[in-house]
Amino acid sequence: MNTANKPEVWLRGKIPEVPDLLQPAAHALLQAVEDVQKYTEDFSEKKLWIRPAGRASAGFHLQHLTGVLDRMLTYAAGKELTAEQLDYLKNEGMPLDEVNVKLLVNAFQKKVEEAISIFRNIPERVLTEKRGVGRKQLPSSVIGLYFHAAEHSQRHVGQLLVTISVVKID
């Protein structure tokens, strides 16, 4: 049975070994992967960097999905962003010849798998620990960062769907 014939991820039951408090975040991230795979199926590489109405390209959304998840996981671990992560952030949305849809989708899927692995291995007592976000160290918590990563991913998947729908018309 392929995912088209299955209910949404959150209706398929618990993700094994993920704490109950992180089930919604895990479900949202896994749903995001399935939706990205579905929306990008047969999507033309030639349209990856088109910016309809001056808005973000599909390429940006695909890069950003991976980048923001990576950054939220870093902050949740109590670390600062590396020079590599800051460079990735600066270049999100920049058309690169070596980047294609499959590469971007695979990178996001791999980052979600990493997140689920972290969810499976984090002690629940750590979830409420305070964490600083960004250079200003704005206040959050481990669980807040995980939920923001999931929510933000869902937001960009929706934007990706609209962007792909619009650029496919041309």
TrEMBL record:
SUPFAM superfamilies: DinB/YfiT-like putative metalloenzymes. Residues 30-160 form the DinB-like domain. It holds the Pfam family DinB_2. InterPro entries: DinB-like, DinB/YfiT-like. It comes from the Bacteria. Gene3D superfamilies: dinb family like domain (1.20.120.450). This is DinB family protein. It comes from Autumnicola musiva.
